[in-house]
Amino acid sequence: MSAVRPETLAVVAGRPAAPGAPLNVAPTFASTYRDGGLVGYGRWDNPTWAAFEEAMGALEGGRAVAFSSGQAATAAVLDRLALGATVLLSADAYTGTAGYLAEAAAAGRLRLRRADLADPAATAAALDDGVDLVWAESPTNPLLDVVDLSRLCRAAAERGVPAVVDNTFATPLLQRPLEVGAALSLHSATKYVGGHSDLLLGVAVAADDATHAELVARRTLAGAVPGVMEAFLALRGLRTLAVRLERQQRSAGVLAERLAASPGVGRVRYPGLASDPGHRLATAQMRGPGAVVSFELATAEAADRFVAGLRLAVPTTSLGGVETTVERRSRWPGSEGIPAGLVRMSVGLEHVEDLWSDLDRALSAAAGPAPAGASPSPAPGAGAGPAL
Ligand SMILES: *Cc1c(COP(=O)(O)O)cnc(C)c1O
Questions:
Q1: Is 194 within 8 Å of 237 (Cβ atoms)?
Q2: Which of 13, 138, 348, 355 could be a cystine partner for 55, CB 3.0 to 4.6 Å?
């Protein structure tokens, strides 16, 4: 099976082979099983999780463990570390990862260091300072910096430090971190893998069997198990990931070019743009630049007017769905270092010309006075967690 291309694996991996079997494993809703079989109790394993894990493992070239969300996968990986361990996290990173680590650091469980992992000298200096785990994203959320993963994993390995790569933005179809030396590739399957904005799920894919076994043990003990229906839907989503991504990526390229040429739009960040600082590296390292585009408007107010002026793209957080979603990223707590007017857009499957008409109209609205009745993109309510 490993001889076929990733697009094919996404369709066939995890499919039962027995004569008479359904084409895909059906959702098995069971908290427990009669004695004498393979599974036992519902928190230990489930055939529907196993099919999804087999497919993700085949795509990433490792062994996958599914969790109830991307955050649960992150927590499982970090909770394996010894008390007082130091984690090096990229300067730009998903707010949930940074938030989890900041909380662990504040409570004295872990130490947190940040560095620009796209800068080899800064990375080497940080690694030399006693790091137990390095956690990278590439492209990063939301600034879309591209990190040389092969170089990073090599620098980490030279010092005996395992590297974790959050592969949510790229998906295993665009890059395979384990191949370049990462110990773990992690996903919020909530995003591109599920692909339809209707589920939460996470996956950690381990390069070696011992790490895989430890993660399964953590999941069993901590109980952050995936929902059966979620695992079923995520595998169904994975089957169409290649065609979704191909179209989303093509549209993202067109929209990024047009945004870059638009008056009123500052810097556009998209690794697919020839002018992007990450372009050369992304071209060498990835099979495609992905479908998230970030761009800067002059102020937070202009970005809010832009978002409020959209009629087709949905003003919301999250990404990777069939629908185009847009938000001003700095509205969330924990977004220090994010330009105030930065808009993150996840390009969906709508016709690219319809999307451009929508963006173009909203850009005109953003440039003018605030339209009557337009509400700014809401800040999270009291008690809301960090941004997605
Ligand atoms: C959303 C996201 C996560 C967290 O995943 P959830 O499924 O929301 O828990 C982790 N990393 C990245 C890059 C994300 O975008």
A1: yes
A2: 13
